Structure of Type IV toxin-antitoxin system AbiEi family antitoxin domain-containing protein:
Amino acid sequence: MPLDAQRRKDIFKLVPEGALVTRKWLKSKDLTGHAIDNLVKSQQLESVKNGVYKRSGSLTEWGDIIYFLQKRLNTDLVVGGLSSLELQKLAHYLPISDKRLIKLYGASNLPFWVNEQTNDIKFEKQNSSVLLGSIPDKDITETYNSFTKTISWKNTKEGLKISIPERAILEILNDVPNQISFEHAFELMQGMNTLSPRLLQKLLELCNNIKVRRLFFWFADQLNHPWLAKLDRDKISMGSGNRMIVKGGKLDKKYLITVPESYE
């Protein structure tokens, strides 16, 4: 086989369709800097950004980007919230704009250029501190980050890391009402009847976001899911003072949050 044909075959195997790789990773696969530059010049590799490449002409999908962030850049970013429930077939995406929003949770930075790679996806990063507190303890953060699962992606061995449903629903409640409506959150909570009370207990104790805790128990009371009676509320503080969730809503006297009058 001619050298160029062999090299092209090797690149197809090394860099699959849509995959993103770094220059450092390519060098770890015994490619010299000179060889990488030649692959770009011969249009076998395409430079995405400085030090990041993909196979020329290949189409990068949203999962390829997340895989790259998690496995090639070693970030702690996890697919969470509504995006996580969708991937687990626990929610249906309701388009409200031309771009679908995928929320990533963690402390690592989200490279600005990832939102230039797809036309129909917008990535948004959210710090875990919105649920754990402004200055979370390192051990608490690591514990929270362990509430994940892995789903398959193409032919990758590692797959994509996403929030488990118990964690994802808390991330969703934090987005009420700015990114997710009260009504949509209620619909999502209706489908959460098989959550683990053991995992919920741990997560609710870790999560010190008072708004999220109150919303969670308000919804849970309305729906009376089987796991609700197994939660130890005495270990979960509800804080003090009123919280306005819905403008013009009615104040629920038990949880001190405003909810739509139609639900009250």
